[in-house]
Every structure is written in C-alpha cells, then in structure tokens.
Specification:
- The chain has 338 residues and is mainly α.
- The protein contains 13 helices and five strands.
- It has a three-stranded parallel β-sheet. It has a two-stranded parallel ribbon with strand order 4-5.
- β4, α8 and β5 form a beta-alpha-beta unit.
- α7 crosses α8.
- The longest helix is centred in the C-terminal third of the chain and has 30 residues.
- The chain is globular.
Length: 338
C-alpha cells in the first residue's frame, strides 16, 4: 500500500449465520467501535457470503437485523461509520465477477477454509463457497479499503485480496489503482475460547449451552455460565508463564484482561495465588457490567425492525455512493462499454 495515494478506509463484515457472542464482541465489534473515531469505516452484514451454505430465507432476514442491531448496541454509530447489508450494494457482485476473471484457480485451490467447510464431500459444496474469497476481495476493494481487521482464520483470504489487487493493477497497467489492503490485528481478546473447552474457539454451535456467552444473554445467564466454566484445581499463577498448559485458566484470564483493558500480567498481579472461587465471581461481575447493557440495547433494537431496516438502507445508499464510481472506473479499464 506504500505507493497508493487514496484515502485510508477500513472494511469489515460479519456473516448473519448465528447469534453474536462474547468472542465476536471482543474479537471484532469492539474494535469496530474504536476504529470509527479514527478512520473512514464501512461495516457490512455479509448476507451474500451467508448463502454459500443453505439459509432459510426468513431466518436470514432476522439474522441480518440481529447483526446490525449488535453493531449498534455495542456502540457502532451509523452517523460515524457506514453500516449496511452487503446485498444492498450491487457493486459487490459486479466487481466479484470481474475478479473471478482475474483470480487464478490455483489460488483458490490453496484456500484452507474451503477444505474445512466443504469437508470430505466437496463435490456437493456450492460454487459460491469455493469462490467465497473472491467475493471477499470485492467486498474490500470495491471501496478501495486500505485496512481490514482480521483474525487468524481470515489472513489467507486477505492475502488473496492483495494478490487480486496486484494482478489487476499489473494486467491492466494501472499501477496503484487498487491498494494492497493491510491487516489490522485485533489485539487482546481476539480469540475467545469455549467456556467448556479452553482448546476450542467459542462458537454459537457448541453443543453445550454453557460454552458460549451471547450478547443478548441477561445478567443471570452470564453469571451462571461463568460459574459453570471449566477450570482446573490449581490457584491462578502470579505470572503469565504459569498459564502454560492450563487452557481454561488462560481463557478466563484473557477474557478478564480484554474486558478490563488490562494485560494478563496485570490481572495475575491482582488475582495470582487465589483460587477460582474468588476469581470467577469477579469475572462474572465484570462480564455482566460490560455485556448486560449491550444485551438490553440489542433486545430493544431488535424489537424495532423498521428502524434497523432504515439504518441498513441508508447505509447501503452511502456505501453505493462510494462503490459505484469505483466499479464504473473498473469497467472502463477492463474495456466494457459504459
């Protein structure tokens, strides 16, 4: 991106495929809130990505509103950031087709996420699931986004976006037309683990109802889940090195640190040597204090579908105002009649 002269922009999105949980908040949404004060931010609900696997239409609409409500409840301000649904901006699909003709099969063959999601029966997977990373490149580059908050599981896709941008710039002899987007590391709390298994990522699909704290959980549910969280019999160590080989303890300390905006070392300086009988209630109080108000606001917003739909429509119009001229330029560069 060093030679790109355009404005700095941030793009990120979340699939509407399940309830938002503590991991989504600490790993992504809280970062969205922080970034909106320093960057030109575009936050979408990536409903086009969601249908790469089957989605019941009515549920997809409800989940799209749920993600938008989660953004707003956590503090994303549609007056400061563009909040929209991906399918509301047709430029995403238009640019994705052009990028399908720029990207190479070999690049997509190396995408590990397709292999993970398709499993052994990849012949029955949708073509959309296979070309998912190309649409993701279009999501980013249709706004000429320069920075993308990413987790470990998305770094490979961001690399493909850089490859597509670089190849387009080279093939059509338009140096620096597209920026090569850079990752924004999510930092503390980026990887929140299951409360029942400290080696598995927190997931809405976990078989145990106590493994995942959802943003719309009330205070009682949050406290109960923290109380039931798996631990080990040893007291907390006084230094982070003592958490090695103790995944459940490390996860709970990491959650506390992320919510309190402290380091693991600072948390352990306060609670080291004490047992979970002391630490869990303190953690429960902290999670309730930070998350329960978000849940209250989330439930209020979800009850007002008309408002959420208006926010998404207005955001889509703002997004299209940026994306459409970029796609028009791409069409001209490619040689389409415009």
């Amino acid at each position: 991106m060093a030679d790109y002269q355009g404005p700095e922009r941030v793009l990120s999105g979340i699939q509407p495929s399940g309830g938002m949980h503590l991991g989504n908040y600490l790993g992504a949404i809280r970062k969205f809130v922080d970034l909106q004060d320093r960057h030109d931010c575009f936050y979408c609900v990536v409903d086009m990505h969601a249908i790469t696997v089957w989605q019941a239409p009515a549920k997809l609409k409800a989940q799209t509103r749920h993600i938008a409500a989660s953004y707003l409840a956590a503090g994303v301000d549609p007056a400061r950031a563009v909040v929209f649904h991906q399918s509301g901006v047709r430029a995403h699909a238009e640019l994705a087709w052009i990028f399908n003709c720029v990207a190479r099969l070999g690049w997509l063959d190396r995408m590990t996420q397709f292999k993970d999601k398709a499993g052994k029966d990849k012949e029955r997977a949708s073509v959309g699931l296979y070309t998912y990373p190309v649409l993701q490149a279009a999501d980013i580059l249709v706004y000429k986004a320069t920075h993308v908050p990413v987790g470990e599981d998305q770094k490979q896709h961001l690399e493909l976006s850089r490859d597509v941008a670089g190849k387009f710039n080279h093939d059509y002899e338009v140096p620096n037309f597209f920026p090569l987007p850079e990752p924004l590391i999510k930092g503390a709390g980026a990887r929140v683990m299951s409360l029942r298994d400290g080696t598995a990522k927190m997931s809405k699909s976990d078989s145990s109802e106590n493994a995942c704290i959802f943003l719309n959980d009330d205070a009682d549910a949050i406290a109960r889940k923290i109380k039931k969280a798996k631990t080990d019999p040893e007291p907390l160590p006084s230094e982070p090195a003592g958490l090695e080989g103790r995944p459940e303890a490390a996860n709970l300390v990491g959650i506390y640190a992320a919510l309190a905006k402290k380091t693991d070392a600072e948390v352990l300086a306060e609670y080291g040597g004490q047992g979970f009988g002391v630490f869990k209630p303190a953690l429960a109080d902290l999670v309730v204090d930070k998350i329960a108000p978000i849940g209250d606001e989330l439930r209020r917003l979800e009850a007002d579908e008309a408002y959420l739909d208006a926010v998404l429509r207005e955001g889509a119009a703002k997004a299209a105002a940026v994306a459409d001229p970029i796609v028009a330029d791409v069409k001209e560069i490619v040689g389409f009649l415009v």
